Amino acid sequence: MNFPDITADLKARTPQLRGRLLANQPLAELTWFRVGGPAQVLFMPEDESDLAYFLQNLPADSPVTAIGLGSNLIVRDGGVPGVVVRLGRGFNEVAVEAGNRLRAGTAVPDVKVARAAQDASIAGLAFYRGIPGAIGGALRMNGGAYGRETKDVLIEARAVDRAGKVHVLSNADMHYTYRHCGAPEDLIFTQALFQGAAGDPATIAAEMDKITEAREATQPIKSRTGGSTFKNPPGQKAWQLIDAAGCRGLVVGQAQVSELHCNFLINLGGASAADIENLGETVRERVKAHSGVTLEWEIKRIGVGA
Ligand SMILES: Cc1cc2nc3c(=O)[nH]c(=O)nc-3n(C[C@H](O)[C@H](O)[C@H](O)COP(=O)(O)OP(=O)(O)OC[C@H]3O[C@@H](n4cnc5c(N)ncnc54)[C@H](O)[C@@H]3O)c2cc1C
Hints:
Strand 19 and strand 20 form a beta hairpin. The strands form 7 sheets. This protein has a 5-stranded antiparallel β-sheet. A 4-stranded mixed β-sheet has the order 1-2-5-3, with helices on one face. Strands 17-20-19-18 form a 4-stranded antiparallel β-sheet. The chain is an alpha+beta fold. It contains 7 helices and 21 strands. Flavin-adenine dinucleotide binds next to strand 3, helix 4, strand 9, strand 15 and strand 17. The site of flavin-adenine dinucleotide (FAD) has 33 residues, from strand 3, helix 4, strand 9, strand 15 and strand 17.
């Protein structure tokens, strides 16, 4: 399915635009699951002021969706109407600052932040080693692992709102809870400032190696997946509830509940987004019937059905 091409109109409204606008750009290849339809328009801004300029001149009723590295995302088969914003080059810098701080653009992969912190003898950011997203996704998801999360290390974040205004948000402004950020949904994050502590590079490296080993042993990290599908309900583990409901290995179309980690869904090769989402909904129904618990999606689903 293709959307009407609105790029000529958008270019006419934004003569000074420096970033790229592409019509009907496939998104599947930009996500870990490798499923889903196109973006009506994919916009890759050059830098924060280019993003702000674009948003200031975009018709107010045009929907805007930010994506990062697509590691927590199902793009539905009919694609995403409006503009999908993907940050690249102009948001890719990492800088070490005084006081064991690290400033990173939101297109920087989490693993690069972990490595930069290690190189600068900054402890406290090693948990980012195992999260396969970029910093924008970590800010929006309150990404975390092994007892730490973004909330514990963030000083402030920069963002651009739907009207093109730049904001600086403190940690409190992000209203973080488990895998949730309560800052306004329209914000596109552009930069983060993190606080670490003085550390020893060899100790940090050993911690990161341990994380890598643990991931490889317990998660299907080489599969087409979206990481943890459902949030852990308070005091419980989603994977245990899914296992107890008999869903380990369950298949719908070409999508499967991972045998290795049953809170992970996998695209066996030819899955549609609908296969994966229907499998997730089937799991939710079975868990509800078995244990009475309603699982809440952690994976974000965007766009429209085919
Ligand atoms: C194998 C595997 C293991 C994983 N392990 C973990 C884990 O241990 N801990 C964990 O927390 N997560 C984990 N995840 C999930 C995922 O990596 C994280 O949620 C990650 O933070 C998502 O980042 P992303 O760049 O891929 O964002 P995407 O998946 O592209 O987007 C996720 C959400 O963030 C929003 N978003 C992205 N960039 C921006 C931006 N610049 N501004 C505003 N909003 C934005 C999107 O709109 C969307 O709502 C795992 C995923 C996989 C595939």
